[in-house]
TrEMBL record:
InterPro entries in alphabetical order: HTH_LacI, LacI/GalR-like_sensor, Lambda_DNA-bd_dom_sf, Peripla_BP_I
Protein name listed in UniProt: DNA-binding LacI/PurR family transcriptional regulator
GO molecular function: DNA-binding transcription factor activity; transcription cis-regulatory region binding
Record domain HTH lacI-type: where: 8-62
Pfam family, one: Peripla_BP_3
Length: 340
């Protein structure tokens, strides 16, 4: 039932519930200073009248906007090419909506966008910021850590971690597990198509490969080639490794998108997978790993799990909970398919 003549007001709800306007306001703003009976009466009146709280007015009282920023310091083409980012945006939006919050997507297109985004966040347009995969030279992490709003990082930023809230997967352990699997197959010429070394995910997966192989810096320079987390980069890196290490018999590729390109380079060179060269990727992207030729053995990380942990942590911080800062490391696992 709705109020004749227009949208129901706070006063209409109060009159229907038989309580004061202040009581209705406290119920809508989830104040604990309301009796269960009054809360039930107001809830029934809200349902009967179809009352929808005015967000702008509510923000003046609660000092909350009902919006959370998702900040991506990635070029637009990488965002659309890599399924990881698209799935992350979708999951963030879904989980924020379930909690009656709105996602605001902020992307870096040009170098001066960093300052623009920092100004936007500082202006109070959002209640918090989720910041993904910052690069080494990205000034945003340092800027947002100084802002008076909750910030949760997805991935490790290139600034001191003291006082930060981070959620990440076990990149070092995943790189080590992938390489140990290749070694367990009797492969000895294990090279790696590494991720970009200005991102901690790329750096740490390379570290895992190094720990498993025990190689020194000179061997790393020979047997590791960065691929930029792109399909084309993976293809170029694999071709370079084939030229430098012709007797290679296995490759750990630091993400599935690069692995797709690496498989293409191996086919072009006449190398059979897995007979001549065994291949392990990282991510277990459902749109890639099961559909390569052959299907890709890979390290599974769950972007949905990381995203849910980030959103839940953000909700607690916005609610004013005292959450100790630190890095939460989520587990990864090997998924065996035909490539290794």
């Amino acid at each position: 039932m709705s109020v004749p003549g227009g949208r129901p007001t706070l006063e209409d709800v109060a009159a229907r519930a038989g309580v004061s306007r202040a009581t209705v306001s406290r119920v809508i703003n989830d104040s604990p200073r309301v009796s269960p009976e009054a809360r039930d009466q107001v809830a029934a009146a809200v349902r009967d009248l179809g009352y929808v709280p005015n967000r702008a007015a509510r923000a003046l009282v609660t000092r909350r906007t009902g919006a959370v920023a998702l900040v991506l310091s990635e070029p637009e083409n990488k965002f659309f090419d890599d399924p990881f980012f698209a799935s992350t945006v979708r999951i963030v939006s879904q989980h924020l909506s379930a909690g009656d919050s709105q996602m605001v997507l902020l992307m870096v297109h040009r170098p001066d966008d960093h300052a623009r985004i920092a100004r936007y966040l500082a202006a109070g347009h959002v209640d918090g910021a989720l910041v993904l995969a910052p690069h080494r030279d990205d000034p945003l992490p340092e800027a947002v850590r100084e802002l008076p709003l909750p910030v949760v990082f997805g991935g490790r930023p290139w600034i001191p971690e003291h006082g930060l809230h981070l959620v990440d997967h076990d990149n070092v352990g995943g790189g080590r597990q992938a390489t140990e699997h290749l070694l367990s197959l009797g492969r000895r010429g294990v090279v790696t198509v590494a991720g970009p070394q200005d991102e901690y995910a790329g750096l740490e997966r390379l570290q895992g490969w190094r720990e498993a192989t025990g190689v020194d810096d000179a061997a790393t320079a020979l047997r590791a080639e960065p691929g930029g987390f792109t399909e084309q980069g993976g293809e170029r890196a694999m071709a370079a490794l084939l030229a430098r290490v012709p007797d290679l018999d296995a490759v750990f590729v630091a993400n599935d998108l690069m692995a797709k390109g690496a498989l293409r380079a191996l086919r072009a060179a006449g190398r059979r997978v897995p007979r001549d060269v065994a291949v392990v990727g990282f991510d277990d992207q459902p749109a890639i790993a099961p559909h390569t030729d052959p299907p890709l053995t890979t390290i599974r990380q769950d972007p949905a799990l990381r995203t849910v942990h980030m959103v839940e942590l953000m909700r607690r911080l916005i609610a004013g909970e005292r959450v100790a800062p630190g890095r939460e490391i989520l587990p990864v696992e090997l998924v065996r398919r035909d490539s290794a």
